[in-house]
């Protein structure tokens, strides 16, 4: 096993990795930019190395500086976390060439899965279902028209190098096809320096369900079940859960999706932790979408329901140890739901709202896990994704997990900045959510339903963010010091939040 590991990341995931390392008696080396000098990860790590200025292009994306820091500090391995360099094949190669271990899949597997069209071909070769569409990039308008006709409208144009919905266009009729392809292609060119696009049949209101896989370097691959990730806003996940409520209706679906995921991962020459994303339609047909070749933000829900520590397994696998469990050993117990807690303003189009955290009280108690990257007094920088923490509830069943999450949300106090905490309360009260009737259209529908409220009760001029948060923090302290209040009325006021696009 490794003696010392460098963490090429920041925020809550750096903290999560430091904790995982410490449990295995492995020293941790954090890296930090100017903006992160006093971060929680820097405070918790055994050692810390300065990389450079705040922009990630000059710090967390600098392969040369990170590898050099690992060598200088005597690390044996590098964990990339998620985002930044985590899915960069050149980084994985540079780490290996420096004589260090990359804690993740082989560089070649990262490269193959980075191309959406190549990934599609691998999935087809592995016998996994894919959405009907073109196998390679579109080469002419004539070919596009012919393909769209045989698929039938609506179709979806996607970027070959894509991901995250960039360069994606829905087309409902042939007359719109040509201009949509041009739009998608130029957006893809700007976003990915690659203008290639391809066509797929549009799956209407799909669920987004992903399968966690774990493979060692001895040819053994298992799946750890699914995560339901349909609640997304602009291709950013907001709430994730394990198991998907869909599996209660169709328990064999997990086995079928799990088997498909394992076959895709094996066909890609994969090892370590990975995630296969699927779309699931109303008839519970599932289709391979793409593979994420990293540890994911939402990995804790899988950990809580399977009882496996994914970070510990990533380390063991990278160190050459074999998996000690078989597929048949896997059990999924209870239900876990995760909220991504952001410094952002739900009342102002979810605009990032970083700044100084003047008050912080994080929830705890039965079934609650908070993977946080912040502390009271910390200044959330403007330079990065403003994820503060992940709040995860586990309980023996889904209704109880929702209850625990609501209770934990009521305990969660953040002063000085705005957060999306109250937004989760509204989602958890939605009938469709409670019933588990989820799809990628859930949040759009949610905002549409709330839109009329805004015109009925126009909001009063109100104090600015920092002021109101400090007032709330003071109120929270006062409340904590005084006698218990009567419980809040169960009929919550209607949210004023609306989708403004
Ligand atoms: C789709 C789709 C419907 N049909 N493909 C969005 C991001 C990219 N990774 C794939 N995406 C989608 N692909 C077909 N053929 C709908 C989406 C989609 C979506 C997928 C997962 C999670 C949220 C989403 C939100 C909107 C659209």
Notable features of this structure?
17 helices, disordered C terminus, eight-stranded antiparallel sheet, 501 residues, binds ligand MV4, alpha+beta, five-stranded parallel sheet, 36% helix, globular
Nutshell version of this structure?
Helices cover 36% and strands 23% of the residues.
Describe the 3D structure:
The chain is an alpha+beta fold and about 500 residues long. It is about 35% helix and about 25% strand. It has helices at about 10-25, 40-45, 65-70, 90-95, 105-115, 115-125, 140-150, 175-190, 245-250, 250-265, 300-305, 310-320, 400-410, 420-430, 430-435, 440-455, 465-480; strands at about 5, 25-35, 45-50, 75-80, 100, 155-160, 170, 195-200, 205-215, 220-235, 235-240, 270-280, 285-290, 335-340, 345, 350, 355, 360, 370, 380, 385-395, 415. α4 runs antiparallel to α5 (about 105-115). The structure holds ligand MV4. Ligand MV4 binds near residues 201 and 206. Ligand MV4 binds next to β8 and β13.
